[in-house]
Amino acid sequence: MNNILDQNLVLKDKKVLLRVDLNVPMKSGAITETSRIEKIIPTIKLLVEKKAKIIILSHIGRPKGKIAEGMSLEPISKKLSLLLNKEVLFNKNIINENTLSEINKLSSGSIMMLENIRFNEGEELNNSKFSKKLSNLGDLYVNDAFSCSHRSHASIEGITKYIPSYFGLQITEEINALNKITSEIKKPITLIIGGSKISTKIKIIKNLIKKFNNIIIVGGMANTMLKYAGSKVGKSICENNCGTLIKEIIENSNKYNCKIICPVDVVVAKKLEGTGEIKDINEIDDDEMILDIGPKTISSIKKIINDSNTVLWNGPAGYFENPNFENGTKKILEIISQKTKNDKIFSIAGGGETVAAIKKFKKFDSLTFVSTAGGAFLEHLEGKTLPGIKALNRNV
């Protein structure tokens, strides 16, 4: 694994294109959770120390190759500047013929952040012309965005074909930790998985069913499962036309003897700012939405976790941002951290919202490993070779 700590690597005066994941949660233009920004600081500090010229590439949201309001990286560049206690120049334009001349003006040890890389159409298309254009902006490339490395995008995979490429400090730490965990994983294994859409995680669930003993589904994904089973979910976050996917999950779970668990009771309200009422899943009114799991569900999750040797968690149990709907997520975290402390089980959590919850409830050091990655975290544990990692290994 070639990383930026390689003894022979000269970084002084080199233009280093640093790909990081700054896709942080924001509300009304303000950053609400900073874990992903904090995690990249060691790599940036090392590059500053080595007198490199640092050009940061990152994204926020899914602007689909067009400039989108509210998706600028400018507020993030300001926050990074505060955390580093060092100026971070922000280049407001999308990459054009002037970008290189602006980069060339950088002095050694200085930092420039480019605007949202996904404002460029070629990024998500992994367009070779755009990849080459990107590579022309620097002397070498460093990927420190593990959480984006499951994407075959220009700034993750395509660029490595045209420029010497290396692993950053954070991505190296993440891969080493996950490899260690994967090699020492012990059954019974339980996955707790949430998120708004089951369709985005269907492949991962299908593949993990073969390896896991229990899959507990919470959040918006659980609403879709409950609706399929005939429960009324009111105006909850829910996907339609997922019958075939769910049927496949159930068939596979029976085939591989993996138990699928969904909520039996929930906390509902008529609006996100509401106070919440506990109801069984067959009692939900049309004007109500599911915003958390109920006590019976928490109790059954506790029993499953207590009978497990390995627990993986990706996705909160409810709308934990409102204290009235934080109980499910908070209790899951308490159960996992207690079990980790007492029985020395492997407990792994990943994903932006999950990390935000862990931070909110001050349990960051109570689990075996916490990853800021979501999809990449699950796919790596599933045994897939991530395009971004494969590209860097190929470039060695």
Class based on secondary structure composition and strand pairing: alpha/beta
Shape: globular
CATH-scheme architecture of the largest domain: 3-Layer(aba) Sandwich
Overall pLDDT metric: 92
- Beta-strand portion reads 15-25%
Largest sheet: 6 strands, parallel
CATH topology group of the largest domain? Rossmann fold
Helix residue percentage: 25-40%
Radius of gyration using CA atoms only: 22 Å
Q: Unreliable stretches, pLDDT < 50, 5 or more residues?
A: none
CATH class of the largest domain: Alpha Beta
What is the number of independent domains?
A: 2
Rounded to the nearest angstrom, the distance between the terminal CA atoms is 7 Å
* Order of strands across the main sheet: 5-6-4-1-7-8
Number of helices: 14
- Going by CATH, the homologous superfamily of the largest domain would be Phosphoglycerate kinase, N-terminal domain
The counted number of beta strands is: 17
Please give a quick description of this structure.
The protein has 14 helices and 17 strands. By secondary structure, it is α/β, with parallel strands linked by helices. The termini are close together.
Task: Provide structural commentary.
With 396 residues, this protein is of the alpha/beta class. It folds into two domains: 15-171 and 387-395, Rossmann fold, CATH 3.40.50; 187-344, Rossmann fold (3-Layer(aba) Sandwich), CATH 3.40.50. It is 36% helix and 17% strand. The protein has a six-stranded parallel β-sheet with strand order 5-6-4-1-7-8, with helices on both faces. A six-stranded parallel β-sheet has the order 11-10-9-15-16-17, sandwiched between helices. Strand 12 (265-269) and strand 13 (277-280) form a beta hairpin. Helix 7 (202-209) packs parallel to helix 9. The longest helix has 17 residues, at 327-343. The chain starts with 14 loop residues before the first strand and ends with a helix.
